[in-house]
């Protein structure tokens, strides 16, 4: 393996992630401090609480990343850091830390778009993982996270043609809201998936927003429908319309299953259709919702029947982490990109302009 060794820092949302990644591909170490337990009592992220947790944990996470990697400062070619999109206060902690390290150690600084990180997670290899071919262009990539849902075409590295995106909520946001409505806690995605897996009745049908032939997505209507369906189920059970009043487990499972089936159906159908339309030679998935087993299996099965290879990072590399930032940083570094010490957070940074 060759290519630059990057120290990568991710702090855009609620995970403090630091990784050492070689050649945009091989992970030497990848440490993530999750704030899930911290945000569970409020049922969501309080930005200032998230920023303070990054401040608290960023040095221990770096220490642990060094300890696991077996490399030192002299081996590092550059420092990559997420500069957007994300929560301003959270981003500032990582950016400021990266700047200080770059300055003291005289290392180049590379600014990374978090969304590009989710895409480049598909290139990563775990420390002991066997070599495998890289994703082949042209490819279609679906990024589905707590804040973003979009489909892009990539014909080469670092270039994106936006095919479609959500016109309202992100897919992960819908999972989180429905998880909350069902009283399953935070974050909703993994909890809804676990509940749905136990469904024995699969009769609940949730609407799908197809938006004609477009590759855009909409999940706010689904969220409203879910609220109505869950309220009706509570009324049928004669219990209060309050997430604290839990439905019987069988009903919760059935509703979680119906909701998840709707989201997966739309995401998978549009991704496969886009791949066919652009003649994709690979399909790539990224972002926290790509950790969803049903979505992964559905896209893998449909792509396999069409002979298109699918690359989906393991779940821990779909959710936010430093390694994905290291993978993207290596490409930006190789392209000659360097950030100056004036680097600032860009909370609304887009991946690419519509073509
Ligand atoms: O990529 P990510 O870690 O952070 C953002 O950049 O937003 O994604 C977090 C989102 C949350 O909405 C979470 O509920 C969702 O990903 N998620 C899942 C699963 N695991 C995480 N959604 C569905 N199924 C899952 N297994
Ligand atoms: Zn993310």
* SSE series: EEEHHEHEHEEEHHHHEHEHH
Indicate the structural class.
alpha/beta
**Widest β-sheet, arrangement of strands:** 3-2-1-4-5
Residue share in helix: 40-55%
Please summarize the sheet with the most strands.
Answer: 5 strands, mixed
pLDDT averaged residue by residue: 96
- Name the beta content range: 15-25%
**Low-confidence stretches at least 5 residues in length (pLDDT < 50)?**
none
Shape: globular
Radius of gyration: 20 Å
Termini Cα gap: 35 Å
Query: Total strand count, please?
Result: 10
Provide a descriptive summary of the structure in words:
With 355 residues, the chain is α/β, with parallel strands linked by helices. 42% of the residues lie in helices and 17% in strands. The chain has helices spanning 36-39, 47-69, 88-105, 114-120, 171-181, 188-197, 220-237, 249-278, 293-304, 315-318, 322-334, and strands at residues 5-10, 15-22, 26-34, 78-84, 109-113, 139-144, 149-154, 161-165, 282-286, 310-311. A 5-stranded mixed sheet has the order 3-2-1-4-5, with helices on both faces. It has a 5-stranded mixed sheet with strand order 8-7-6-9-10, with helices on both faces. β6 and β7 form a beta hairpin. The two termini are 35 Å apart. The site of zinc ion has 5 residues, from α4.
């Amino acid at each position: 393996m060759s290519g630059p060794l990057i120290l990568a820092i991710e702090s855009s949302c609620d995970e403090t992630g630091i990784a050492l990644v070689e050649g945009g591909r091989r992970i030497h170490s990848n440490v993530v401090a999750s704030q899930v337990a911290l945000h569970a009592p409020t049922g969501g992220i309080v930005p200032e609480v998230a920023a303070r947790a990054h401040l608290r944990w960023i040095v221990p996470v770096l220490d642990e990343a060094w300890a696991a990697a077996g490399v030192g400062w002299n081996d590092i070619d550059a420092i990559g850091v997420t500069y957007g999109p994300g929560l301003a206060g959270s981003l500032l902690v990582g950016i400021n830390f990266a700047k200080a390290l770059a300055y003291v150690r005289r290392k180049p600084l590379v600014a990374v778009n978090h969304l590009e990180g989710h895409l480049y997670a598909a290139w990563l290899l775990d420390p002991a993982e066997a070599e495998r071919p890289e994703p082949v262009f042209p490819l279609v990539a679906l990024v589905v996270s707590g804040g973003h849902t979009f489909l892009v075409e990539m014909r080469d590295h670092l270039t994106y043609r936006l095919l479609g995106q959500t016109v309202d909520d992100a897919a992960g946001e819908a999972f989180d809201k429905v998880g909350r409505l069902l009283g399953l806690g935070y974050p909703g995605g993994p909890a809804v998936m676990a509940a749905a897996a136990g469904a024995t009745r699969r009769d609940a049908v949730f609407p799908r927003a197809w938006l004609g032939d477009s590759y855009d997505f909409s999940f706010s209507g689904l969220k409203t429908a879910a609220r109505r369906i869950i309220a009706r189920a509570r009324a049928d059970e004669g219990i209060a319309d309050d997430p604290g009043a839990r439905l019987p487990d069988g009903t919760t499972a059935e509703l979680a299953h119906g909701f998840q089936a709707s989201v997966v159906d739309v995401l998978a159908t549009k991704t496969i259709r886009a791949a066919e339309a652009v003649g994709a030679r690979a399909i790539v998935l990224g972002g926290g919702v790509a950790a969803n087993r049903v979505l992964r299996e559905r896209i893998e099965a449909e792509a396999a029947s069409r002979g298109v290879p699918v690359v989906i990072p393991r779940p821990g590399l779909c959710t936010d982490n430093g390694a994905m930032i290291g993978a993207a940083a290596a490409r930006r570094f190789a392209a000659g990109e360097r950030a100056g010490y004036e680097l600032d957070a860009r909370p609304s940074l887009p991946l690419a302009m519509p073509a």
